[in-house]
Amino acid sequence: MNVNTETSGNSLVVALDGRVDSSNAAEFNAALETATADSDLGVVLDCENLQYISSAGLRVILTTAKSLQSSQRKFVICTLSNPIQDIFVISGFDQIINIQGSRAEALATMEA
Amino acid sequence: MSATRSIQIDLGAPELPRLAAAVEEMAETEGWMPDLAFQIQLVLDEIGDNLVEHRAQAQSTYMMVTLDSRDQAVTVEVVDDGIAFDPTADAPAADVTSALEDRPIGGLGLHLIRTLMDKVDYRREDGRNILTLVKHRTP
């Protein structure tokens, strides 16, 4: 699992790649906290290269979404593969987290 | 094509990656579609995580997973030696509808299993929990 962060316009883009499961969920959580600390920008989590995520990883995403919301920062997730998009929908995350098809679309919603 | 394989996991050791590797291998040799491989991997991860997390209170020591891949369906049987626990009945329903600020963290594992699999059966036999999951291969 790897997390790379860059600033694009008024957003932090966090690109997640690899696999997230119970063995590295704590590491993923710490990486997200580090990536989003010391900033008040909105966050785009780009999952284009995310191959796998279990509910241990979904917990981290929900925790992050709650924490960003409580500090009035936008949070958008983009570029989910089909099976991952399915588990987001089954988990009801699509009702509470802004999910976009591409990074460009995600960044466009950050401008609005 | 068909194949059957059993993997025994010591719940007190970090052995779940061995299970993931066995699923990956069977997915490849049996030509599973990527979505099927992902879903089988996921449900076994969720079951394994639960068993490892609750092993002390459940008094369980191992899980035995049997993967059975046929043309029509993949059947996964998970046996553990813990106290009786029926995940199809004893687990609370997941909250997948509350607003973000009210949404509880966790509780999604069993919900994913029940939703992704076509059939989930539980039985108690000889002091063991036996969970049988079936996923059809043809839509």
Account of the 3D structure:
The complex is a heterodimer of chains A (112) and B (139). Chain A is an alpha/beta fold. Chain A has one domain: Transcription Regulator spoIIAA (2-Layer Sandwich). Chain A is built from 4 helices and 5 strands. A 5-stranded mixed beta sheet of chain A has the order 1-2-3-4-5, sandwiched between helices. In chain A, α1 (25-36) packs parallel to α2 (55-70). Chain A is globular and about 30 Å long. Chain A starts with a strand and ends with a helix. The model of chain A has no long low-confidence stretch (mean pLDDT 96). Chain B is an alpha+beta fold and 139 residues long. Chain B has one domain (3-136): Heat Shock Protein 90. Chain B has 4 helices and 5 strands. Chain B has helices at residues 16-29, 34-53, 55-58, 109-116; strands spanning 3-10, 62-69, 73-80, 119-125, 128-136. Chain B has a 5-stranded antiparallel beta sheet with strand order 1-2-3-5-4, covered by helices on one side. In chain B, α1 (16-29) packs antiparallel against α2 and α2 (34-53) packs antiparallel against α4 (109-116). The model of chain B has no long low-confidence stretch (mean pLDDT 95). At the A-B interface, α2 and α3 of A face α1, α2 and α4 of B.
